[in-house]
Specification:
With 229 residues, the protein is α+β, with helices and mostly antiparallel strands. It contains eight helices and eight strands. Strands 1, 2, 3, 4, 5, 6, 7 and 8 form an eight-stranded mixed beta sheet that branches. Helix 2 packs across helix 4. The protein is globular, with a radius of gyration of 22 Å.
């Protein structure tokens, strides 16, 4: 027996069980989650591409498996740039997971060169990317919300940790969130954080997506960006 344990036993052995103090355990440390800056974009895009390249949606968008990783990285660079200007990018310690959020509490500013850059990086597959964006847009809720554009997290626990990190901030200001679950694991993580899925939307000759909305907490929204990092 460890000396410290022996001393504790001596101090409590004469206290009736119902009056003994409950054991105190240190709280588990919250996972380290950071917002990135522009210098981190290439590395974070590579992490997101690595975790999503085998997803059915990625295969539908980019059928050529040989060029898929590079094309995904390039697409994520464009998306992360947009999120840093109009949203948030949350990175879990150890590059274990990435969440990319777009702020749709107000109209997204136009990006005049976005289409040209997309065509440059995706080539003939850019039509599929645009089709996905069009289909997704039809099911986006017409209310102010933060849109979870990408959740790249192979471990469901990491996915939940990232979601909880952002949701806690959004609940303080009463902002809804919306996402498309691309598989059952993502759907489970979203539902664990209060998202309410609706009927699946199937991509043409492709996999299903589950539109999922998490209603705003019943608190007044504030002006400006919906949640500080």
């Amino acid at each position: 027996m460890h000396p410290g344990t022996e001393a504790t036993t001596c101090l409590t052995s004469h206290v009736p069980p119902r009056h003994r103090p409950a054991p105190q355990y240190p709280a588990a440390a919250a996972p380290a989650i950071t917002c990135i800056n522009r210098a981190d974009i290439p590395a974070v895009a590579a992490v997101a591409a690595h975790y999503t390249q085998d997803e059915p949606v990625a295969g539908w968008l980019l059928p050529d498996r040989r060029r898929r990783p590079a094309a995904l990285r390039a697409c994520f660079v464009l998306l992360i740039e947009r999120a840093l200007q109009n949203g948030f990018v949350d990175l879990l310690a150890g590059d274990r997971a990435v969440a990319i959020w777009l702020d749709r509490t107000r109209p997204l500013p136009a990006a005049p060169d976005q289409l040209q850059r997309l065509q440059e990086v995706c080539g003939p597959d850019s039509d599929a990317v645009l089709l996905l964006a069009d289909i997704a847009g039809r099911h986006t809720p017409p209310i102010p919300h933060l849109h979870l554009a990408v959740l790249a997290a192979p471990d469901p626990a990491d996915a939940v940790a990232l979601l909880a990190h952002r949701q806690q901030r959004l609940d303080r200001v009463g902002v809804a969130t919306f996402a498309y679950a691309a598989n059952q694991v993502q759907l489970g993580a979203l539902m664990a954080e209060g998202f309410q899925p609706s009927e699946a939307v199937r991509l043409p000759a492709g996999p299903p997506l589950w539109p999922s909305l998490r209603p705003a907490a019943q608190r007044p929204a504030v002006a400006g960006r919906p949640a500080a990092a």
